[in-house]
Amino acid sequence: MPPAEVESTLRYSASMGCTEALFTFCEQPGMVEGFDAALAPTGYATILDYCHAMCRVAIEAGMLPHTNAGILDYGELERFRTVNASMGLMLETTADIPAHRNSPGKVPEVRIAMMEDAGRLKIPFTTGILIGIGETPRDREESLEVIRDLHRRYGHIQEVIVQNFCPKEGTPMEAATYPGTEEMCGIIELARDILPDDVMVQVPPNLADAADLVNCGVDDLGGVSPVTIDYVNPEHPWPQIEDLRTIVGDHQLRERLCIYQKFIECGWYDPSLEGLIKNLVQVIQERNMHMMTRRGEEEC
Protein backbone atom coordinates (compact mmCIF):
# COMPACT_ATOMS: atom_id res chain seq x y z
CA MET A 1 0.00 0.00 0.00
CA PRO A 2 1.41 3.46 -0.87
CA PRO A 3 1.82 5.95 2.02
CA ALA A 4 -1.23 8.05 1.12
CA GLU A 5 -3.46 4.96 1.15
CA VAL A 6 -2.02 3.78 4.46
CA GLU A 7 -2.52 7.20 6.04
CA SER A 8 -6.11 7.56 4.82
CA THR A 9 -6.92 4.04 6.04
CA LEU A 10 -5.44 4.79 9.46
CA ARG A 11 -7.31 8.06 9.90
CA TYR A 12 -10.61 6.60 8.73
CA SER A 13 -10.14 3.58 11.00
CA ALA A 14 -9.57 5.83 14.00
CA SER A 15 -12.74 7.76 13.15
CA MET A 16 -14.62 4.44 13.14
CA GLY A 17 -13.51 3.68 16.68
CA CYS A 18 -10.61 1.32 15.98
CA THR A 19 -7.91 1.26 18.66
CA GLU A 20 -5.22 -0.94 17.08
CA ALA A 21 -3.27 -0.65 13.83
CA LEU A 22 -1.77 -4.00 12.83
CA PHE A 23 1.28 -3.79 10.58
CA THR A 24 2.35 -7.05 9.01
CA PHE A 25 4.15 -8.21 5.89
CA CYS A 26 6.21 -11.12 4.63
CA GLU A 27 9.59 -11.75 6.22
CA GLN A 28 12.49 -9.77 4.75
CA PRO A 29 10.63 -8.64 1.62
CA GLY A 30 13.73 -6.72 0.53
CA MET A 31 15.25 -10.06 -0.46
CA VAL A 32 12.49 -10.59 -3.05
CA GLU A 33 13.49 -9.56 -6.56
CA GLY A 34 11.81 -6.32 -7.58
CA PHE A 35 10.71 -5.30 -4.09
CA ASP A 36 13.23 -2.46 -3.63
CA ALA A 37 12.13 -0.95 -6.94
CA ALA A 38 8.51 -1.13 -5.80
CA LEU A 39 9.40 0.48 -2.48
CA ALA A 40 11.43 3.34 -3.98
CA PRO A 41 8.44 5.61 -4.83
CA THR A 42 7.47 5.71 -1.15
CA GLY A 43 10.67 7.62 -0.37
CA TYR A 44 11.75 5.10 2.29
CA ALA A 45 14.98 3.13 2.01
CA THR A 46 13.67 -0.01 3.73
CA ILE A 47 10.34 -1.58 4.61
CA LEU A 48 11.18 -1.13 8.30
CA ASP A 49 11.74 2.61 7.84
CA TYR A 50 8.39 2.78 6.05
CA CYS A 51 6.62 0.76 8.74
CA HIS A 52 8.16 2.83 11.54
CA ALA A 53 6.92 6.04 9.92
CA MET A 54 3.41 4.63 9.48
CA CYS A 55 3.38 3.56 13.13
CA ARG A 56 3.87 7.23 13.98
CA VAL A 57 0.97 8.17 11.73
CA ALA A 58 -1.22 5.62 13.51
CA ILE A 59 -0.31 7.12 16.89
CA GLU A 60 -1.07 10.63 15.64
CA ALA A 61 -4.44 9.36 14.39
CA GLY A 62 -5.23 7.92 17.83
CA MET A 63 -4.50 4.21 17.44
CA LEU A 64 -1.92 1.94 19.05
CA PRO A 65 0.40 0.14 16.60
CA HIS A 66 1.05 -3.59 16.86
CA THR A 67 3.76 -4.74 14.46
CA ASN A 68 4.40 -8.29 13.29
CA ALA A 69 7.23 -7.89 10.79
CA GLY A 70 8.83 -11.30 10.95
CA ILE A 71 12.34 -11.68 12.33
CA LEU A 72 13.81 -8.52 13.87
CA ASP A 73 17.11 -8.27 15.70
CA TYR A 74 17.50 -6.74 19.15
CA GLY A 75 18.22 -3.25 17.83
CA GLU A 76 15.24 -3.31 15.49
CA LEU A 77 12.96 -4.49 18.29
CA GLU A 78 14.30 -1.74 20.52
CA ARG A 79 13.60 0.83 17.81
CA PHE A 80 10.04 -0.39 17.20
CA ARG A 81 9.26 -0.57 20.90
CA THR A 82 9.14 3.25 20.92
CA VAL A 83 6.22 3.29 18.47
CA ASN A 84 4.40 0.06 19.37
CA ALA A 85 2.22 -0.83 22.33
CA SER A 86 2.77 -4.53 21.61
CA MET A 87 4.41 -6.71 18.99
CA GLY A 88 4.16 -10.28 17.75
CA LEU A 89 5.69 -13.25 15.97
CA MET A 90 4.09 -16.65 15.45
CA LEU A 91 6.35 -19.45 16.66
CA GLU A 92 4.27 -21.79 14.44
CA THR A 93 6.17 -24.92 15.51
CA THR A 94 9.43 -26.05 17.04
CA ALA A 95 9.59 -28.87 14.50
CA ASP A 96 11.77 -29.04 11.39
CA ILE A 97 9.13 -29.43 8.69
CA PRO A 98 9.14 -29.36 4.86
CA ALA A 99 6.75 -26.38 4.85
CA HIS A 100 9.55 -24.18 6.25
CA ARG A 101 12.32 -25.57 4.05
CA ASN A 102 12.96 -22.35 2.10
CA SER A 103 12.16 -19.93 4.92
CA PRO A 104 15.31 -19.19 6.96
CA GLY A 105 13.33 -16.87 9.21
CA LYS A 106 11.17 -19.81 10.28
CA VAL A 107 14.00 -21.83 11.78
CA PRO A 108 12.60 -22.42 15.30
CA GLU A 109 15.78 -21.33 17.07
CA VAL A 110 15.73 -18.01 15.21
CA ARG A 111 12.14 -17.30 16.18
CA ILE A 112 12.67 -18.33 19.79
CA ALA A 113 15.73 -16.05 20.00
CA MET A 114 13.67 -13.07 18.81
CA MET A 115 10.96 -13.84 21.35
CA GLU A 116 13.64 -13.87 24.04
CA ASP A 117 14.90 -10.48 22.89
CA ALA A 118 11.34 -9.14 23.09
CA GLY A 119 11.17 -10.44 26.66
CA ARG A 120 14.43 -8.74 27.60
CA LEU A 121 13.05 -5.48 26.20
CA LYS A 122 9.75 -5.88 28.08
CA ILE A 123 7.64 -5.82 24.94
CA PRO A 124 4.10 -7.16 25.47
CA PHE A 125 4.07 -9.99 22.97
CA THR A 126 1.73 -12.18 20.94
CA THR A 127 2.79 -15.54 19.57
CA GLY A 128 1.11 -18.77 18.58
CA ILE A 129 1.20 -22.17 16.96
CA LEU A 130 0.00 -23.08 13.48
CA ILE A 131 -1.92 -26.33 13.19
CA GLY A 132 -1.82 -28.52 10.08
CA ILE A 133 1.57 -27.66 8.55
CA GLY A 134 3.16 -31.07 9.03
CA GLU A 135 3.73 -31.04 12.78
CA THR A 136 2.95 -33.95 15.10
CA PRO A 137 0.89 -33.87 18.32
CA ARG A 138 4.16 -34.01 20.29
CA ASP A 139 5.50 -31.06 18.26
CA ARG A 140 2.45 -29.01 19.30
CA GLU A 141 2.98 -29.88 22.94
CA GLU A 142 6.66 -29.01 22.74
CA SER A 143 5.91 -25.68 21.05
CA LEU A 144 3.49 -24.72 23.82
CA GLU A 145 6.05 -25.74 26.44
CA VAL A 146 8.68 -23.51 24.83
CA ILE A 147 6.27 -20.56 24.91
CA ARG A 148 5.41 -21.34 28.53
CA ASP A 149 9.07 -21.39 29.51
CA LEU A 150 9.74 -18.09 27.72
CA HIS A 151 6.90 -16.48 29.65
CA ARG A 152 8.16 -17.90 32.92
CA ARG A 153 11.55 -16.26 32.28
CA TYR A 154 10.38 -12.89 30.98
CA GLY A 155 6.64 -12.56 31.72
CA HIS A 156 5.92 -10.87 28.38
CA ILE A 157 3.54 -13.23 26.55
CA GLN A 158 0.03 -11.76 26.39
CA GLU A 159 -1.74 -14.38 24.33
CA VAL A 160 -1.03 -17.51 22.33
CA ILE A 161 -2.93 -17.99 19.10
CA VAL A 162 -3.99 -21.52 18.26
CA GLN A 163 -4.47 -21.07 14.53
CA ASN A 164 -5.61 -23.66 12.03
CA PHE A 165 -3.71 -23.64 8.74
CA CYS A 166 -5.91 -22.55 5.83
CA PRO A 167 -4.71 -24.06 2.53
CA LYS A 168 -4.63 -21.62 -0.39
CA GLU A 169 -5.28 -22.59 -3.99
CA GLY A 170 -2.21 -22.44 -6.21
CA THR A 171 0.30 -22.96 -3.41
CA PRO A 172 2.43 -26.07 -2.72
CA MET A 173 0.25 -26.89 0.30
CA GLU A 174 -3.13 -26.42 -1.35
CA ALA A 175 -4.02 -30.05 -0.63
CA ALA A 176 -3.06 -29.91 3.06
CA THR A 177 -5.55 -31.40 5.51
CA TYR A 178 -7.70 -28.85 7.30
CA PRO A 179 -7.85 -29.45 11.08
CA GLY A 180 -11.37 -30.27 12.23
CA THR A 181 -13.25 -28.77 15.16
CA GLU A 182 -12.70 -31.77 17.44
CA GLU A 183 -8.95 -31.73 16.81
CA MET A 184 -8.76 -27.98 17.36
CA CYS A 185 -10.71 -28.28 20.60
CA GLY A 186 -8.23 -30.84 21.92
CA ILE A 187 -5.28 -28.61 21.05
CA ILE A 188 -6.91 -25.61 22.74
CA GLU A 189 -7.48 -27.68 25.88
CA LEU A 190 -3.83 -28.74 25.74
CA ALA A 191 -2.74 -25.11 25.41
CA ARG A 192 -4.87 -24.09 28.37
CA ASP A 193 -3.35 -26.89 30.47
CA ILE A 194 0.26 -26.04 29.55
CA LEU A 195 0.22 -22.25 29.51
CA PRO A 196 0.21 -20.12 32.68
CA ASP A 197 -3.15 -18.72 33.73
CA ASP A 198 -2.15 -15.14 32.87
CA VAL A 199 -1.52 -16.05 29.22
CA MET A 200 -4.68 -15.95 27.12
CA VAL A 201 -5.51 -18.60 24.51
CA GLN A 202 -6.80 -17.08 21.29
CA VAL A 203 -8.48 -18.43 18.17
CA PRO A 204 -9.02 -16.24 15.08
CA PRO A 205 -12.82 -15.99 14.73
CA ASN A 206 -12.68 -15.72 10.92
CA LEU A 207 -10.52 -18.84 10.44
CA ALA A 208 -11.92 -21.35 12.92
CA ASP A 209 -15.36 -22.51 14.06
CA ALA A 210 -15.02 -20.19 17.02
CA ALA A 211 -18.56 -20.72 18.32
CA ASP A 212 -17.76 -24.42 18.73
CA LEU A 213 -14.40 -23.70 20.37
CA VAL A 214 -15.05 -21.05 23.01
CA ASN A 215 -15.98 -23.69 25.58
CA CYS A 216 -12.70 -25.57 25.00
CA GLY A 217 -10.63 -22.98 26.86
CA VAL A 218 -10.61 -19.95 24.56
CA ASP A 219 -10.07 -16.64 26.37
CA ASP A 220 -9.63 -14.29 23.42
CA LEU A 221 -10.82 -13.75 19.84
CA GLY A 222 -8.12 -11.34 18.69
CA GLY A 223 -8.88 -8.29 16.63
CA VAL A 224 -11.51 -7.68 13.96
CA SER A 225 -11.97 -4.71 11.67
CA PRO A 226 -15.04 -2.79 10.50
CA VAL A 227 -12.84 -1.10 7.88
CA THR A 228 -10.41 -3.49 6.20
CA ILE A 229 -10.33 -7.10 5.10
CA ASP A 230 -7.99 -9.67 6.64
CA TYR A 231 -5.18 -9.09 4.13
CA VAL A 232 -3.40 -12.32 5.13
CA ASN A 233 -6.56 -14.40 4.66
CA PRO A 234 -8.75 -12.27 2.36
CA GLU A 235 -11.02 -15.21 1.58
CA HIS A 236 -12.16 -15.26 5.23
CA PRO A 237 -14.25 -12.16 6.15
CA TRP A 238 -14.04 -10.67 9.64
CA PRO A 239 -17.04 -11.25 11.89
CA GLN A 240 -18.47 -8.00 13.20
CA ILE A 241 -19.39 -7.17 16.79
CA GLU A 242 -22.89 -8.62 16.59
CA ASP A 243 -21.42 -11.81 15.14
CA LEU A 244 -18.96 -12.00 18.03
CA ARG A 245 -21.79 -11.63 20.52
CA THR A 246 -23.38 -14.70 18.94
CA ILE A 247 -20.08 -16.60 18.87
CA VAL A 248 -19.36 -16.15 22.58
CA GLY A 249 -22.83 -17.31 23.57
CA ASP A 250 -23.20 -17.21 27.36
CA HIS A 251 -19.68 -15.86 27.84
CA GLN A 252 -19.06 -12.16 28.35
CA LEU A 253 -17.69 -10.23 25.37
CA ARG A 254 -15.32 -7.45 26.38
CA GLU A 255 -13.14 -5.17 24.30
CA ARG A 256 -9.44 -4.86 25.14
CA LEU A 257 -6.47 -2.92 23.84
CA CYS A 258 -3.55 -4.53 22.04
CA ILE A 259 -1.57 -4.01 25.27
CA TYR A 260 -3.12 -5.86 28.20
CA GLN A 261 -4.06 -3.96 31.34
CA LYS A 262 -1.44 -5.68 33.51
CA PHE A 263 1.33 -4.41 31.23
CA ILE A 264 -0.15 -0.92 31.30
CA GLU A 265 -0.08 -1.01 35.09
CA CYS A 266 3.55 -2.19 35.01
CA GLY A 267 4.55 0.58 32.60
CA TRP A 268 5.69 -1.76 29.82
CA TYR A 269 5.45 0.89 27.11
CA ASP A 270 7.38 3.88 25.83
CA PRO A 271 6.59 7.05 27.81
CA SER A 272 5.53 8.78 24.58
CA LEU A 273 2.54 6.41 24.37
CA GLU A 274 1.25 7.03 27.89
CA GLY A 275 -1.30 9.72 27.04
CA LEU A 276 -2.82 7.75 24.16
CA ILE A 277 -2.94 4.52 26.17
CA LYS A 278 -4.69 6.17 29.11
CA ASN A 279 -7.20 7.83 26.78
CA LEU A 280 -8.01 4.55 25.01
CA VAL A 281 -8.35 2.72 28.33
CA GLN A 282 -11.11 5.16 29.20
CA VAL A 283 -12.72 4.71 25.78
CA ILE A 284 -12.94 0.92 26.01
CA GLN A 285 -14.11 1.02 29.62
CA GLU A 286 -17.06 3.13 28.51
CA ARG A 287 -17.77 0.88 25.53
CA ASN A 288 -17.61 -2.26 27.69
CA MET A 289 -20.00 -0.69 30.19
CA HIS A 290 -22.38 0.11 27.34
CA MET A 291 -22.12 -3.45 26.01
CA MET A 292 -22.86 -4.92 29.45
CA THR A 293 -25.83 -2.60 29.92
CA ARG A 294 -27.23 -3.52 26.53
CA ARG A 295 -26.87 -7.23 27.24
CA GLY A 296 -28.67 -6.83 30.57
CA GLU A 297 -31.54 -5.04 28.85
CA GLU A 298 -31.79 -7.80 26.23
CA GLU A 299 -31.87 -10.48 28.93
CA CYS A 300 -34.67 -8.65 30.71
Distance between the termini: 47 Å
* The CATH homologous superfamily: Aldolase class I
Cα shape: globular
- The portion of residues forming beta strands comes to 5-15%
Describe the structure in your own words.
It is a single chain. By secondary structure, the chain is an alpha/beta fold. It has a single domain, classed as Aldolase class I (TIM Barrel, Alpha-Beta Barrel), CATH 3.20.20.70. It is built from eleven helices and six strands. The protein has a six-stranded parallel β-sheet with strand order 1-2-3-4-5-6, with helices on one face. Helix 4 links the parallel strand 2 (64-68) and strand 3 (86-88). Helix 5 packs parallel to helix 6 (137-154) and helix 6 (137-154) runs parallel beside helix 7 (181-194). The protein is globular, with a radius of gyration of 19 Å. The model has no long low-confidence stretch (mean pLDDT 94).
In short:
The protein has 300 residues and is α/β, with parallel strands linked by helices. The chain is 43% helix and 10% strand.
